[in-house]
Automatic annotation (TrEMBL), chain A:
Domain ABC transmembrane type-1: 25-224
Matching SUPFAM superfamilies: MetI-like (SSF161098)
Organism annotation: Vreelandella arcis
Gene3D superfamilies, sorted: MetI-like (1.10.3720.10)
Keywords linked to the UniProt accession: Amino-acid transport, Cell inner membrane, Cell membrane, Membrane, Transmembrane, Transmembrane helix, Transport
Listed name of the protein: Amino acid ABC transporter membrane protein 1, PAAT family (TC 3.A.1.3.-)
GO BP: any one term: amino acid transport
Transmembrane segments: 20-42, 63-83, 201-224
Intracellular or extracellular location(s): Cell inner membrane; Cell membrane
Bilayer topology annotation: Multi-pass membrane protein
UniProtKB/TrEMBL annotation, chain B:
Membrane topology: Peripheral membrane protein
Family per similarity comment: Belongs to the ABC transporter superfamily.
Recorded GO CC terms: plasma membrane
Phylogenetic placement of the source organism: Bacteria, Pseudomonadati, Pseudomonadota, Gammaproteobacteria, Oceanospirillales
Species the sequence originates in: Vreelandella arcis
Record-linked SUPFAM superfamilies: P-loop containing nucleoside triphosphate hydrolases (SSF52540)
Name of the molecule in the record: Amino acid ABC transporter ATP-binding protein, PAAT family (TC 3.A.1.3.-)
PANTHER family recorded: AMINO ACID IMPORT ATP-BINDING PROTEIN, L-CYSTINE IMPORT ATP-BINDING PROTEIN TCYN
An MF annotation (GO) of this entry: ABC-type amino acid transporter activity
Keywords: ATP-binding, Cell membrane, Membrane, Nucleotide-binding, Transport
Pfam name, any one: ABC_tran
Predominant location category: membrane
Matches recorded under InterPro entries: AAA+_ATPase, ABC_ATPase_HisP-typ, ABC_transporter-like_ATP-bd, MetN_ABC_transporter-like, P-loop_NTPase
Length: 239, 265
């Protein structure tokens, strides 16, 4: 092999691998976005439970966040995917339904969401604790029902405090998608390996994948910064 | 008592939050040392030294603090409370509390505006999302109220960018927007720079002139004497003396009250 680059192989249609890479990239984004959103929902519920729940709820959530944060994500992925699908199939056939097959995307989103949720719970818990108590007290003093207090006051007031941590989690989510390659999910890293293996242009394809990940990060950074500016609109700048 | 009863607290309160001194408004009920009534149109000033239980008493009226015993009634409706473990009282009917709270306005020492909402949004929040008012109507009313407290031109600002006096006037407009049965003021001028106290007191005086029912915890003695129809002096969580302002300030009986008045005069 004499050349490292043959850009014609990046063309959109075969024999170029461009389309394969882009589809993998899109699936990575789907995974990351789905897992991240699920993580946010788990995080809000988890933080509320840890702060306002009874002892049983708090202890269960403590175990959840501890396990999620203690076990390597790769192990969690394998565990959730293989054990999870196995349990689900058994449960389903025990209830008289046929065996179920979770598709890779759903499984991936669930796994990433569960992992993200563990971290997000702690990020949101800290952010809620950072809200001056009086703001929430004022809402209660006006007779606002608890669900509305959460939606109208607590969540928007905690957002500026949560954003730096949640931006980190998004970046981690985009890269965690690569771990899904171990369960044969065709996200960007897996298809890149296939393309590279088939053509032997390893450097070029992995650089191309790197560029795509970088582009995602840059675009995310821009969007997150705009959102942070919006979330901090009512706060006096720290400097 | 001819006028309808508006608020009444009657009971013992021992505050079990760790950092605060123990406070109690003790039974037996009926005794004027342990019971407080505000009739419609009354302006009750609650005075006393630091840690005497003024804020605790005020916060028992909308149950931001729960009394340890006794009862609180708003317009004849008594909060349903039940005893919890450790003998404290807890809220038995959360909806009732929410319903009553929606008609009691509270103005806090630290304003407690919602920083992610503009001045106007702060004022329309409760009418729309608690009282179910139409947005247009809420905005229309809010603009009138903001004009009244002198903030009509600031309605699109975020509170953190305004002075303390402006924030507190916003908080008063937010309370007026629910057209409350009574307004609870918890040291409304204590967090303000001295030159900003006057503008807030002027707004409260304006409300007093239209005979709104108000309960006011304050350190502004001259203002209390001037505006209040009834003054309550608390000491160590007990109502040491209460009566019309002329009597409390002009002819105090309790030695503690005498000492307090001479120390703040």
């Amino acid at each position: 092999m004499t050349t490292v680059f043959d850009f014609s192989l990046l063309a959109y249609s075969p024999p170029g691998w461009g389309k394969v890479l882009l589809v993998g990239f899109l699936r990575s984004i789907e995974l990351a976005a789905g897992g991240y959103l699920l993580g946010i929902l788990i995080g809000i519920a988890g933080a509320s439970g840890k702060l306002y729940g009874n002892k049983v709820v708090r202890d269960l959530l403590e175990i959840y966040t501890m396990v999620i944060r203690a076990v390597p994500e790769l192990v969690l992925m394998l565990l959730f995917y293989y054990v999870g699908t196995d349990l689900l199939s058994r449960a389903s056939s025990a209830m008289g339904f046929g065996g179920v097959n979770i598709d890779g995307l759903t499984a991936g989103i669930l796994v990433i969401g569960l992992v993200q949720g563990g971290y997000a719970t702690e990020v949101f818990r800290g952010a809620i604790l950072a809200i001056p108590r009086g703001q929430i007290e004022a809402a209660h003093a006006f007779g606002m029902p608890p669900g509305k207090v959460l939606r109208r006051v607590t969540l928007p007031a905690m957002t500026p405090h949560a954003l730096p941590g949640m931006a980190n989690l998004w970046m981690i989510a985009t890269k965690d998608t690569a771990l899904l390659a171990v369960i044969d999910f065709s996200e960007l890293t897996l298809v890149t390996r296939q393309a590279a293996g088939a053509t032997q242009y390893y450097i070029m394809f992995f650089l191309a994948a790197g560029v795509l990940y970088l582009a995602l990060t840059l675009v995310s950074n821009f969007a997150l910064r705009r959102f942070e500016r919006h979330a901090r609109r009512g706060l006096v700048p720290a400097r | 008592m001819g006028a309808p009863r508006d608020e009444r607290t009657n009971g013992k309160r021992t505050c079990n939050r760790d950092t605060r001194p123990a406070q109690a408004i003790r039974l037996p009920r009926g005794s004027e040392r342990y019971s407080l009534t505000a009739n419609q149109g009354d302006i009750v000033a609650i005075i006393g030294g630091s840690g005497s239980g003024k804020s605790t008493l005020l916060r028992c009226i909308n149950l931001l603090e729960r009394p340890t015993s006794g009862e609180v009634a708003i317009q004849g409706e008594t909060y349903r409370l039940r005893s919890a473990r450790h003998g404290d009282l807890e809220i038995a009917d959360r909806r009732q509390v929410q319903r009553i709270r929606a008609h009691l306005g509270m103005v806090f020492q630290n304003f407690n505006l919602w920083p992610h909402r503009t001045v106007l949004e702060n004022v329309i929040e409760v009418p729309i999302h608690v009282l179910g008012m139409k947005r247009d109507e809420a905005i229309h009313r809010a603009e009138g109220l903001l004009d009244r407290v002198g903030l009509g031109s600031k309605k699109d600002m975020y509170p953190s960018f305004m002075s303390g006096g402006q924030q507190q006037r916003t908080a008063i407009a937010r309370v007026l927007a629910v057209d409350p049965l009574a307004i609870l003021f918890d040291e409304p001028t204590s967090a303000l720079d001295p030159e900003l106290v006057g503008e807030v007191l002027a707004v409260i005086r304006d409300l007093a002139a239209e005979h709104r029912t108000m309960l006011l915890v304050t350190h502004e003695m001259a203002f209390a004497r001037d505006v209040a129809s009834h003054v309550v002096f608390l000491r160590e969580g007990i109502i040491e003396e209460q009566g019309p302002p002329e009597q409390i300030f002009g002819d105090p009986r309790s030695p503690h009250l005498k000492q307090f008045i001479s120390s703040v005069a």
